[in-house]
Amino acid sequence: MKRLTTLLAVMLMAATGLTAQNVAPRGLFKLQRLGYENGRPDHVPEMVQYKLSTDYVPMTLMVHKNTPQDYVYSMRMDEPHPYSCTGDVPVGENGRGTRIYDGYDDRFTLKWYNNLRPYEGAVFPMNEFITEYYDRKNMEPQMVRSIEMLQMKHEKATHRFAGSWRMVGFYGLVDGERILNAPKTHLFKVYGEKDVTFLFCYPQQLTGGAVIYRPLVVKSDNCIKEGDNNECTITWKNDDTFTLKIDRGDGTFVEELWKRSGLPKPFQQLFGTDVPVYDVQIPSGF
Prior knowledge:
Order of helices and strands: HEEEEEEEHEEEEEEEEEH
């Protein structure tokens, strides 16, 4: 009886371990090191890269700037479907598809075949498999916080700017007449209590998006400071609309019109939100 009990316990532990290693990665992970073929030693990359793996699609987040006033990263969609565990076995018709394995709640391994990036041979040698090791260690708080804000999981701010906004356009003068111009870049903001996250994007695609995270000082309903920019003068039209006027630093003032809005639908699917999107109706040309 004792042997049977022991055997059952061992089988349960083995089954639990097997299940734990087959967890499809979900959430935010940081790249820790790269592995190579042919006995080449592992390499700790100089770049700072994250994976955001969701039930919608996985994304690569590449950090470009990290200062107290500006944290900047770009976004790229990796696959048109969520990551699932494949094991370290050939994937796809030629066996060179992306492999996801050793998946736990806090880490996973990704292996891909490089036949696309010929100019990065030192870090990503051509025509061989590259192994990327991800976990949740040493993640930068600005990255974690900005993702929480885009997911609308942060505690709601107590000031009037709380929530997400869309830049409708910016004001200019033509023959002395004040007109509203459509922006060339789609820009959204999410305000926290003491920080703000900007999203520059193409509304219908995830790749090419860029995020800037900055500290925020709300001096009043009519004066805020975002990062190390000059103070912004705010004029409220109603609770869902305001104009923001700022000196760019060279004596030129820019005035923008902002409307309360959710992020574009692809980004809401990515971040798991459901906030009404304000549809901008401004001609961008003649």
